[in-house]
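S.,

As promised, the pyridoxal-5'-phosphate run. Input:
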Amino acid sequence: MSLKQTDGAIYELIEKEKEYQNNTLRLIASENYTSNAVMEATGSILTNKYAEGYPNKRYYAGNKYVDEIELLAIERAKKLFKVGHANVQSHSGSSANIAAFFAFLEPGDKFMGLDLPHGGHLTHGSHVNFSGKWFNAVHYSVDKETEALDYDDIRKKAIEEKPKLIICGYTAYPLIIDFKEFRSICDETGAVLMTDISHFAGLVAGEAYPSPVQYADIITTTTHKTLRGPRSAMIMCPEENAKTIDKSVFPGTQGGPLEHCIAAKAVCFHEAMQPDFKEYAKQVVMNAKVFADELATKGLRIVTGKTETHLILVDLTQKGVTGKDAQMALEEAGIITNKNTIPFDTKSPFITSGLRFGTAALTTRGMKEDEMKWIADNVVKIIENPNDNEMKVKIRNEVKEICDRFPVYK
Ligand SMILES: *Cc1c(COP(=O)(O)O)cnc(C)c1O
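Predicted complex:
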């Protein structure tokens, strides 16, 4: 029986969500629209499988096709990222990071990551997260003036603190990270270099962002952000760390792998190897640049002054509106963004002084510079008049028209 016949309530809600995804402008920097092929694999009969272990070393019989699928996913991941080893079993970015930490750290060990309000992820040492509770997390921050990473300062902190592991790769940092510099800091202090490329993995795959592969001891990533695959993750590393990583994923921190997601990841890697994915990655960055420039021209302050990625962070302080209120006003006009702390934010993470935008999803719809400019102009209008309901309704209708011109799901 179909979902519609079995469970009308969930069916209806999914249909509504589909329409909503079609009819709104989604500027959430961590979201994308994945392909029908990826969704077909995700929704496949592979969800019925138990395959604890690794290809050809399973704890269950009956995995001959599953082994082939997982081997294909691994092979494609290695080829796509030109990396020695890939473990494609991580369920999510957070679980990949759990496995990564447990591969190289003992509980209580010290590691260093970017402070959360400065763009780090929850799993990079927040006190409410396992990473800050089970390990001794110390932090570096961005420079107060430039809002960019200050590598001299990071080196100084690393020498003082002697962390066993240093993590770079963030959720709200618009500039390119100098992986070579991090490698040199880790070499000087004897730390393991972990890079979490969750946000910009698709840009790395599409060669619109430098690869950390030759520098990092361990690379974690989600597969559903700029990489445009299923909601999942993976870990990559040089061949010499393969055993440590594999053991840490299974049996260290996970049980049975989600083979339907692994098949979907294989599909995603295949798609990302096609020439048009390079075009996509380039356009994502171009769109972000145009979007940021237009916001700046219209008077918004861009954190770090620019973007070199898919992501733009703005400071609303001078506009007298909080991130929370701006996010809500934009949502009413069909423009979906998220409030975000900015470096040295004086407001709480639930209120915030900033908004974060990303261009990965809109670029998948085929939108280009002209659309970016229009959206940026209207974002500023709403931020400057968050309570003008008449204007929001007018913009909402225009948003719908743009969405109709760039359809996603039928
Ligand atoms: C999104 C993200 C994660 C977490 O991914 P989930 O799949 O949501 O657990 C981890 N690290 C970084 C840097 C991220 O951006």
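The first strand starts at residue 25 and ends at 26. Residues 193 and 366 are 36 Å apart (CA to CA).

- D.
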